[in-house]
Design a protein that fits this description.
Strand content: 5-15%
Number of domains: 2
Oligomer: single chain
Strand order of the largest sheet: 2-1-3-4-5
Radius of gyration: 28 Å
Helix content: 40-55%
Largest sheet: 5 strands, mixed
Number of helices: 7
Keywords: DNA integration, DNA invertase, DNA recombination, DNA-binding
Shape: elongated
Distance between the termini: 68 Å
CATH architecture of the largest domain: 3-Layer(aba) Sandwich
GO molecular function: DNA binding; DNA strand exchange activity
Family: Belongs to the site-specific recombinase resolvase family.
Number of strands: 5
Protein name: DNA invertase Pin-like site-specific DNA recombinase
Order of helices and strands: EHEHEHEEHHHH
Organism: Zhongshania antarctica
Structural class: alpha/beta
CATH topology of the largest domain: Rossmann fold
């Protein structure tokens, strides 16, 4: 069975162009959705994917109708492939039920993996460069070294509790404990 999925981003648009192309391509059932592609919750897509069985084919008008990103698209199509379900995109002429279509899809997957690796490398290089310039990432410390030393001095007085010291510096007891461990 060939099942189609059509999506538009706004209510001003309609799926007629997509559904006509899918019907002409032999789709037997079409799931339609009006929802931004960036939305994680796509109920019609979920229904569509749940309906598909081994030997079926999912068809879309264009790749961007299915995935929010290349990574998302590769994940969806990989899941379909694991379940023995084919995938076809009309505009891009991708058909994972053929050897050539599988090749194209795997090239896309490789490009997505390459892109993720490049992003990781750039992020690591940027963090290393920032550390070399003396910058540290992460959240700023709640208490300075000087404040932590004052807190430690205050805690030497047996009549003062950690809760009181934390309240004095406007932090939680957990934050005070973390600061004390860091400095002492």
């Amino acid at each position: 069975m060939i099942i189609g999925y059509a999506r538009v981003s706004t209510t001003d648009q309609n799926t007629t162009l997509q559904t006509d192309a899918l019907t002409d391509a032999g789709v037997e059932k079409i799931y339609e959705e009006t929802l931004s592609g960036t939305s994680k919750e796509r109920p019609e897509l979920t229904k569509c994917l749940d309906t598909l069985r081994q030997g079926d084919t999912l068809m879309v008008w264009r790749l961007d109708r299915l995935g929010r990103s290349l990574k998302d698209l590769v994940a969806i199509i990989s899941e379909l492939e694991e379940r023995g379900i084919g995938f076809q995109s009309i505009n891009e002429a991708i058909d994972t039920t053929t050897a050539g279509g599988k090749l194209i899809f795997h090239i896309f997957g490789s490009l997505a993996e390459f892109e993720r690796s490049l992003i990781q490398e750039r992020t690591k290089a940027g963090l290393a460069a920032a550390r070399a310039r003396g910058r540290k990432g992460g959240r700023p410390l709640a208490l300075t070294e000087q404040q932590t030393k004052k807190a430690h001095a205050m805690l030497r007085d047996p009549t003062i509790t950690k809760t009181e010291v934390a309240k004095h510096f406007n932090v939680t007891r957990a934050t005070l404990n973390t600061s004390l461990k860091r400095v002492l």
